[in-house]
């Protein structure tokens, strides 16, 4: 399940970058296609992450479940921020604040995913 989760978030980030560049270029049709595929990846991330979270929470050997919940909240925040950034770019509005939040939460999510868990 871990491989499917990592593959889906890696593909989501790649599709996010491609869709953002296409919106920036002004190609609405192609960017909408990549945006929709990225949304599908978001659903796969949530499904695989939810399954892994359920497996961890039901494991009696794990004592400290706090980092699991923090990672879940950070991961959902990253997905939300990616969607917000793409929709804002589609409308022609770009806010630096959302990019800052995105990078902070993305790096914290990676930190929790590899080092803490």
From TrEMBL:
<protein>
    <submittedName>
        <fullName>YisL family protein</fullName>
    </submittedName>
</protein>
<feature type="transmembrane region" description="Helical">
    <location>
        <begin position="98"/>
        <end position="114"/>
    </location>
</feature>
<feature type="transmembrane region" description="Helical">
    <location>
        <begin position="35"/>
        <end position="54"/>
    </location>
</feature>
<keyword id="KW-0812">Transmembrane</keyword>
<dbReference type="Pfam" id="PF07457">
    <property type="entry name" value="DUF1516"/>
</dbReference>
<keyword id="KW-0472">Membrane</keyword>
<feature type="transmembrane region" description="Helical">
    <location>
        <begin position="6"/>
        <end position="23"/>
    </location>
</feature>
<keyword id="KW-1003">Cell membrane</keyword>
<keyword id="KW-1133">Transmembrane helix</keyword>
<feature type="transmembrane region" description="Helical">
    <location>
        <begin position="66"/>
        <end position="86"/>
    </location>
</feature>
<dbReference type="InterPro" id="IPR010899">
    <property type="entry name" value="UPF0344"/>
</dbReference>
């Amino acid at each position: 399940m871990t491989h499917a989760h990592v593959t889906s978030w890696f593909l989501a980030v790649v599709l996010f970058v491609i869709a953002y560049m296409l919106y920036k270029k002004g190609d609405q049709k192609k960017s909408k296609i990549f945006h929709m595929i990225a949304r599908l990846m978001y659903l796969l991330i949530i499904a695989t992450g939810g399954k892994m979270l359920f497996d961890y929470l039901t494991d009696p050997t794990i004592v400290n479940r706090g980092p699991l919940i923090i990672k879940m909240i950070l991961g959902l925040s990253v997905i939300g921020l990616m969607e917000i950034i793409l929709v804002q770019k589609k409308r022609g509005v770009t806010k630096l604040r959302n990019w800052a939040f995105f990078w902070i939460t993305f790096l914290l999510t990676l930190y929790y995913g590899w080092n803490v868990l």
